[in-house]
């Protein structure tokens, strides 16, 4: 994996907070989340269902449907012309102009995202024409054919309706649409969830090839850690609306520091090496509508102690010799480590 820590930041989310509901008892589903994406980087965003992964990116791109409400924060993106703009402050007109040009989204369900009564060719060309109204029909057709060829589909399938394509082909059409205007940021919301493992592999390989060819950066959302370890340069782990660990993909896989990350990784079979018994994470994620103070993982953590109940999660370098400076974790155990206390013996053993 390539180190992008010194590359230019192309997308920066600062202290983004999102509520569901408009009254005093609204659920605070995201609380001051900060995240950065560097030019050309593949950032994996992982966590259990309901942890806030999709809410984070839909809120950041202002695609969050009601009753979602952005309660605060900033989302800075570097536009094609080189200027930095806060997406949360753009007018509706400015937002329409920059969507699909600066950033694009591949949604989770291709069948639900494509209009069932229009041929896929028309849908691709309509998206391009909205931003390139001066293009002729011949130019639009040529670009649509180029895009279909780029994602490995015969251009004659432009005349097909979505239901006439397989699940994998529909997802490739969505990728083609997202890349039509060559955005610098591509957000993929669990694009392989409904596909079989063979098609998953093909889609992932295609994304990797296109990224190398076109140079865009990717936020890849999934709950499948084994998939992210293969394709991501960096992984951010979300839990209960907060990022609790962020670091280089392979470093995070081999030396996961947060007990929750460790539980996620142990829930999947290893990619290589000897077999091992799979573990799990006891309990269930907390109710975001009644989340209290302190670490949200405390009730499920094997290493919890009383101070965790009031600990405010804040990402900091782990403080462990050998960890890279941009491998960060939000856990009281590592705050205590810096103060001279030892990690629990079980963690020391597992993390060697």
Considering the chains and any ligands shown, give keywords for the structure.
single chain, 352 residues, alpha/beta, Rossmann fold, eight-stranded mixed beta sheet, four-stranded antiparallel beta sheet, 31% helix
Describe this structure as you would to a colleague:
The chain has twelve helices and twelve strands. α4 packs across α5 and α5 crosses α6 (about 165-180). It folds into two domains: about 1-100 and about 185-280, P-loop containing nucleotide triphosphate hydrolases (Rossmann fold), CATH 3.40.50; about 115-180, no CATH class. The protein is of the alpha/beta class and about 350 residues long. Helices cover about 30% and strands about 20% of the residues. It is globular and about 70 Å long. An eight-stranded mixed sheet has the order 6-7-8-3-9-10-12-11, with helices on both faces. The model has no long low-confidence stretch (mean pLDDT about 90).
Q: At the first level of CATH, what is the class of the largest domain?
A: Alpha Beta
Number of strands: 12
Helix/strand order? EEEHEEHEHHHHEHEHEEHHEEHH
Q: Sketch the major β-sheet.
A: 8 strands, mixed
Q: Give the C-alpha Rg.
A: 21 Å
Strand order of the largest sheet: 6-7-8-3-9-10-12-11
Q: What coarse outline follows from CA principal-axis ratios? A: globular
- Report the mean per-residue pLDDT as an integer: 89
Helix content class: 25-40%
What is the H level of CATH, i.e. the homologous superfamily of the largest domain? Answer: P-loop containing nucleotide triphosphate hydrolases
Q: Give the DSSP E fraction (strand runs of 2 or more residues).
A: 15-25%
Distance between the termini: 21 Å
CATH hierarchy: architecture of the largest domain? 3-Layer(aba) Sandwich
Question: Which class best fits the helix and strand makeup?
Answer: alpha/beta
Number of helices: 12
Unreliable stretches, pLDDT < 50, 5 or more residues?
none
Number of domains: 2
Q: What is the CATH topology descriptor of the largest domain?
A: Rossmann fold
């Amino acid at each position: 994996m390539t180190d992008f820590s010194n590359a230019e930041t192309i997308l920066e989310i600062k202290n983004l907070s999102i509520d569901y509901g408009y009254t005093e008892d609204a659920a605070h589903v995201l609380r001051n989340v900060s995240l950065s994406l560097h030019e050309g980087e593949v950032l994996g965003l992982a966590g259990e269902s309901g942890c806030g992964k999709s809410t984070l990116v839909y809120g950041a791109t202002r695609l969050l449907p009601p009753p979602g409400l952005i309660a605060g924060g900033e989302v800075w993106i570097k536009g094609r012309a080189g200027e930095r703009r806060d997406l949360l402050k753009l007018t509706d007109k400015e937002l329409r102009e920059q969507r699909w040009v600066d950033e694009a989204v591949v949604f989770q369900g291709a069948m639900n995202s494509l209009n069932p009564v229009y041929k896929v060719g028309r849908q691709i060309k309509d998206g391009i024409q909205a931003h390139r109204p001066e293009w002729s029909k011949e130019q639009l057709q040529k670009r649509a054919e180029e895009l279909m060829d780029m994602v490995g589909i015969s251009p004659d399938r432009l005349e097909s309706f979505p239901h006439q394509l397989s699940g994998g082909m529909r997802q490739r059409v969505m990728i083609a649409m997202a890349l039509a205007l060559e955005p610098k940021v591509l957000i993929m919301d669990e694009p392989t969830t409904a596909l079989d493992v063979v098609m998953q592999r093909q889609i992932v390989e295609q994304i990797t090839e296109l990224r190398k060819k076109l140079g865009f950066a990717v936020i890849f959302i999934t709950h499948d850690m084994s998939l992210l370890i293969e394709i991501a340069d960096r992984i951010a782990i979300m839990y209960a609306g907060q990022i609790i660990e962020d670091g280089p993909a392979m470093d995070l896989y081999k030396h996961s520091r947060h007990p929750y990350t460790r539980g996620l990784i142990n829930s999947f079979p290893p990619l290589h090496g000897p077999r091992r018994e799979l573990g799990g994470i006891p309990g269930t994620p907390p109710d975001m509508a009644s989340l209290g103070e302190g670490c949200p993982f405390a009730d499920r953590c094997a290493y919890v102690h009383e101070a965790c109940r009031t600990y405010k999660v804040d990402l900091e370098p782990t403080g462990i010799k050998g960890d890279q400076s941009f491998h960060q974790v939000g856990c009281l155990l590592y705050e205590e480590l810096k103060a001279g206390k030892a990690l629990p013996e079980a963690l020391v053993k597992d993390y060697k």
